Amino acid sequence: MQHFKTLSAYLDYLELPRPEHPMLSVFSAVGEGFLPCPKASSPPITNDCYSISLKKIVKGDLNYGRTRYDFTNGALIFIAPRQVLQWDSSVVFEQKGFSINFHEDFLKGTELAHQVKKYGFFSYSANEALHLSPKEEKQMEAIVESIDIEYHNNHDEFSKDIIISQLSTLFKYANRFYERQFINRKELSNDLLEQFNQQLEDYFDSGQLQESGIPSIEQIANQLSVSQRYLSDTLKKETGKTSTEHLQLYLIDEAKNILLNPSKSVAEVAYELGFEYPPYFSRLFKKKEGLSPTEYREQYKI
Known about the structure:
By secondary structure, the protein is α+β, with helices and mostly antiparallel strands. 48% of the residues lie in helices and 17% in strands. The strands form 3 sheets. It has a 5-stranded antiparallel sheet with strand order 2-9-4-7-10. The protein is elongated, with a radius of gyration of 24 Å.
């Protein structure tokens, strides 16, 4: 897989104009202009840059997870360094909006270098983009316009600090708008929880638990066609519990049924549920239920 270490090399590959700054590139078509067109398709590639792009779809189908949504409003996409990128010519975007690309070293020595890692949307897949309302789109475009003006000014000792500050503001607004999206897509959140539990049920019923042990959240997320971070954030927003907590609760529910079989020891129950260490199973059970597996068994003993 081809990897691009510099911003210039990455933009050259995309067949886009070279950046005015070695670590920062801003393309904006907020006004009357148009965004330059990148190459129509690419095999999987990676790079060391962050990208933030606002696009509008005019042809082709895009899905949000497994559900199709209206993409006529702006779709704001966040890409972190070393995420695998791939696209083909089936989807056509309107050449309006904006695209900001910057090398990860551009943030070095700034507070934003630490903050950016806390923003979950940089871990989301491209089909988990932020879908902006027209009002939100205007707010984002105003911030990018300020960044674009500073980017094209003669650079001085204040330029980087000003741009970093504006990027920080853009990320904070994005965080706010994602919160709104999670709330507005409550139906999707409920559906995702149902699919999550169904995946676990299918996994248990297929006998994979005995063969491969407890499934990872990444495995489940891949089956649901969403990223691990997005799955956890969505479930947390809707239910107050992360994907790991939901997995643990499912295991505990299964354990309750098996524990009522007096012929099996607690250790056997733990191994049957995919736990390598029975003491960990016992601690988890007590943490979730307030009593040990043995105490639970005694409580329901006939």
